[in-house]
Amino acid sequence: MPAKMKSGEKRVYQLKVTLRDISPPIWRRILVPHDIRLDQLHQVLQVVMGWTDSHLHEFIIDGVTYGDTSVDMEMSEDMENERSFRLHRVVPREKGKSGYVYDFGDYWEHEILVEKILPVETGTHYPVCITGKRACPPEDCGGTSEYGELLEALQDPSHPEHEAMFEWLPEDFSDSEKFDVDSVNRSLRGSQR
What we know:
Helix content is about 25%, strand content about 25%. The protein is built from 6 helices and 8 strands. The radius of gyration is 18 Å and the shape is globular.
């Protein structure tokens, strides 16, 4: 457990983000400033996971829902404005967990675990992705079960949907096992400008 933080002291959260209900798991390990706003964390998650920010999202932390309250007035009645909350205030300690849902149609559920709270390293640009496994599913593929069916069809040349799936897939989805941390970090740096 890290020493108690002094007022104004900067820390870094090491987060493990895992896409639920997919095996083998798709996950990322990232370092973010402890005081990152939830709307900024959403943008980081979009980049590191490989999503395109084309759908609604929400965080669920200790039974409270946080999201973009400017998008849907009906939804915002039961939702806190994510721009008003910083990560260290809603998940204050190591081993704290939160949920993150992206795309309410496909309903991609992520678990976010605070693995460690670390001191800031001089010369390191945050946020940064330090590792991960497997490619993100393509947008609008239908959710976890449909993604499994998509992978089955892609891996079996005799599958009746094999050719159609390859035609449908986005160009950047060439290998479900591929994860390129350097590419993710270039995208993270580009999104922070």
